[in-house]
Structures are given as structure tokens and as C-alpha cells.
Specification:
Layout: H1 3-48, E1 61-65, E2 71-74, E3 82-87, E4 90-95, H2 104-156, H3 162-187, E5 191-192, E6 197-198, H4 200-212, E7 219-227, H5 237-254, E8 260-264, E9 269-275, H6 279-294, E10 308-316, H7 321-338, E11 343-346, H8 358-371, E12 374-383, E13 388-399, E14 405-407, H9 408-417, H10 421-438, E15 446-449, H11 452-456, H12 458-470, E16 478-483, H13 484-489, H14 491-504, E17 507-513, E18 530-533, H15 535-538, H16 545-559, E19 564-568, H17 573-581, E20 586-588
Parallel strand pairs: 1-4, 10-11, 13-15, 15-16, 16-17, 17-18, 18-19, 19-20
Antiparallel strand pairs: 1-2, 3-4, 5-6, 7-9, 7-10, 8-9, 12-13, 12-20, 13-14
Length: 606
Amino acid sequence: MSLLHLFEHRTRRLQLLALLLFLLLLNVSHYAARQHTIQQQATQLMQQIPSPRPLSEDQPVWLTLTAENALAMQLQPGATDYLALNLGDSLAFVDKRLLPGTDVWFYVVLNSVFILVFLPLALLFRRRRSALTSEVIELDKAIRILQDKVELNSRSGTAPSIALGKVSERINHLLKRDQEVRHLVRVQGLIDHELAIGNRVFFESKLQHYLGDVSEVAYGALYIIQLSHPEPGPAGIKQLTRLKGCVDILHGMAAAYPDTVMARLSDNDLVLLVAGLTGREMEKLGDRMATLLSRASCFADCTGQDVLHIGYAGYQRDQTSYQILSEADMALKTAQLHGPNAAYGFVQQDSKPPAKGSVWWRSELNKALQEHRFTLSFQPVFSWQDSDVLQHEVLVRLQSSDGQNIPAAIFLPMAHNCGLTGQLDQHVLLKTAKLCAVDSRTYSRCSVNISIQSLLEPQWCDWLDQMLLSGQLEPQQLALEISEHHLLKHYKQLKSRLIKLHKAGFSLIVDQIGLVIDNAIYVDELPLESVKLHPSVVRNINQHLEQQLFVRGLVSGYAGKGVKVIATGVELEEEWLTLQKLGIAGGQGFYFSQPLNQIIAQGQTQ
């Protein structure tokens, strides 16, 4: 018998003994109290009846009840039942009919009432205690089993038990599945699920953005890759395998360029947009693309056959998407006439950058840094719930030596090529910090776009630490923005540095959400304050259910993390009303305000 069972058995016996003892004490105490009461009543009776003669010490007194229901004193006992009492110096016999009932039935009733009231309570307490004891016993068994396993593992030096390992694997699987489901909900209307790239709706919105947004490079190239399968009939497993193989190769080629968009236009047509390509670079990429794809392992069973054709066309800002797609499609038909696995394109002669070359750009950017010819403008981010300014995004313009205003989309790629990106980011951060310090009374915070090259340079991070220590940068007044495309590409190197910046006091913002549709692995690991939608997602969102589904999934995915979703590039009231219904926290764009020369204080718009 275990200690718990022995303790329970002894406790049960003690409880029964205590109950009987309590009942005995109750009867004894009641009997003693009744005897005392009887003595008091007998004394009162003696005082009420005058004695016909003096009482002697050796002659007892008899108190009885007469036929007339009156008290009387007799010298001899009658036929009634008497109770003998010691009253001081004399002995008295009192007729029991004159006193309260003290027979055995009174105690039977008293004990019965006690048992009926207290016994159920005792049984209920015992049952409850038995249940608790059983729980303790089960817990004790579980603890002993766990201790035995731990001791066994510690002796043998093996890993945790197989059961615990399976539970851990199951939890990891569920977490991974949760991330996949959230990703699918986020991009349900914009993704081609067979190839895991964008669909036609996704691509057309991105193309429209590159053709109309002044913040992007004003020129580039669009490639249509059409696969020719020798197997007749509908698409099969082999055809899908070839498409996936081509997508992998195109991903590798696109990684060499900063701004690219890839999608599936139709069953056998892929499309690739590369921003910032000149005419000569466009031709080289088209020829290289045709060579690598036709020789890919996915076409090993199609040796000597016509497997693909590529048509491409250059684009310029302010052209229509229909015009560009039509030119690329015409180039594709021309490539089909040129023979197997051919590439052909229409290259515009005026698609060259306005710069004279890298030497000119290096000189111009260095002089601009020394002469402070970089001007800042501020685009406010408005909250529809508070009707106030959340923050301002800092936009940079270059005043060239010949008096032109050059947007960041033109000079930033040149600064990257010249290795001046870090110095430019330092210049913008310090200048923004000085302007924010002037308006510190109203706490108008600004967000600054930081390039990946700066964050990846240890020297630049050391400079940032020195600025924080010296007080030249106040992190509470600044938010750092980084594009999702670059974040996903360099996430392993950036993760720890971004967490360090957040601990230093900077708010973190990821922008250009929706430009790529890769799985957002950073969602659960980075302490983000907000994310910003790419303008192509916002454009005419009131007319596209796919884009609305994308935004709704994004908002719901961040709802439990306290991350705000902000729309950029809002130009129409219909867009803004639709975004509000989808749960957007704020927005920025020409619908609210043009970029300003100064910061709007909080509360000033009310």
C-alpha cells in the first residue's frame, strides 16, 4: 500500500471516530443542561407552594399534580412517577408531569436530525477529497514516469524521447503550414499556383506602375518567352516540368538586375520585365536567354527541336501597357519566323539614360554631396481613423550642375554603381534629423529609405552607432524603410542588424509590398511597425477584386501583430474609400498632398 492510500485509510477512520465523539458530547452536554434546568424549575415550585408544616432534614417533600390541575404537597407518595432531587438540605420528589419531557424519544429525534444533516455533508466532503486524492495519485505517477525517462536519458546520454521529438516535429509542421496558408491567402488572386509566380493580373498592374510612376526608372525591357511543346493535346506533367525549369533559369538571370518582374501570361507564355535596360543590354540579355533556355536540362528530351521563341520590346515612361505588350507580341511572331529557338526584339533608340556615363555621374554626385545640392521633400502619410498625419516619407531630388531636378529613380542606380550609396544615405539621414529636431515639439516623425548596400556595410553601421552616441541622430524621430524585394534577397544578413536597429530606437517599415509574391518569411521574426503597399497594388483597386483579396489577406495576416498596413500611390477617392473598407491604417499619395517642402505638424490638418 502506498503512502497516499495509507494516509487516506487512516483519515477515514479518524473522521468516523471524530463524528461519534462529537455526537456523544452533544448528548451528554444536553442531558447535563436538562438536569440543571429541572433543578431550577423544582426549586421554583417549592417556593410557590407554602408548606403546611416546617420541613425537616430527614423527611422528604412530595410535589404532585392534583385533580384540579393545581400544585399540592403531600406527605405520602401517590401513584404517579416521581423524580428524586437534592435541593439543598432536603430531599424532594417531583412529579414528572410538572417538568419538561426528558424521555429517550427526545434523544432519538435529536440524533436522527444530526445524522440527516451532517452525514450528507461529510459524504460530499469525502467524495470531493477522494477525487482530489485520485488526481494527486495520477499526477504523482506521471511525475515518476517523467523522472524515470529523464534519469534514463541522462544515464545513456541519448537525445530526448522519441515521443517528444515527434511532438516537436508536429508543432514545426503546423507552424510551417500556417505560414503557407497565410501566404496563399495573401496572394490568392495574384499568383499562378502551378509555377508559384505572378499571373497576368499581377503583371499588368506592375507594368502599369513602371510606365506611370515617376519614382521608377523611365525605361526598360519586356520579354515574352513562349514554349513550344512537341506533345499534342492539353498540358501535361512534362510540359509543366519544362515551364518550371525555365522559371528557375529566369530567376537566376533576373537576380543580376535590381528591378525585375516575372509572371505567367498564359498556359505556355512567360513574361519578364527588367527595368533600366538600354538597347544594347536588351539585345544581349535576349540572346543569352534564348541560348540558356534552349540548352536547359528540362528540354533534354527535345534535342534538335524548336522548343521556344522570345520576343522583346523596350519601353519608355508614359507609354500604354497595351502598346508595350503588342510590340513584344509582334516581336515574338517575328522570332518564330527567324527559326528555332530564336529571340527578336524592337529596340527604341531613345531608351538611353540621360547621363553621360559613370565618370560624369561620380563627379556630379561627389560635387552634389559637397555643395549640398540634394533637396528633401516630405510626403505626409494620413490616417483615416485619426484624420491626422502619421508620419512623413522623405523624398530626395538632385539639383544637377546644369539646373535640372533629377528624381531618385535616375541617380540612385548611378550612385550604387559609383559606390556612393552609403555617403548619400548618411547625408539624407543627418539632414532629416536636423529638420525633425526643429519640429520636435510636435513630434513629426519622418521615414527614410535606406539602401541595402548601406545596411550590409559594417563601416556604415559603425558610423550610425557613432551618430547615435553623439546625439546627432534621435532614433525616436526616424523610421527606416527597406524594400521587401531586397529584404527577402538578403534576409539572412539583414535580420540581426534590423533587430539591433529596432533595439536602438528606430522604427522599421517594409515598403513595396506586392511587387514580389515570394513568401514573407520576415513576418514573424522582425519587430515591424508598418508595411507599405506597392503603388501598383493600389492603382484602381476599386475595380480589381484580385488586388482587394491581396490587401484583405495582408491586413488579416498582420492584425494580431500590431503592424499597420499603409497604402502608397493613392490618387483617386474611389481607391481610398475601397482601401478604408479593407482595413488600411493610412495612405499617402497625390490624393492627399503633393510632396511638401516642410513637415506638417501633428494636429495641423484637423
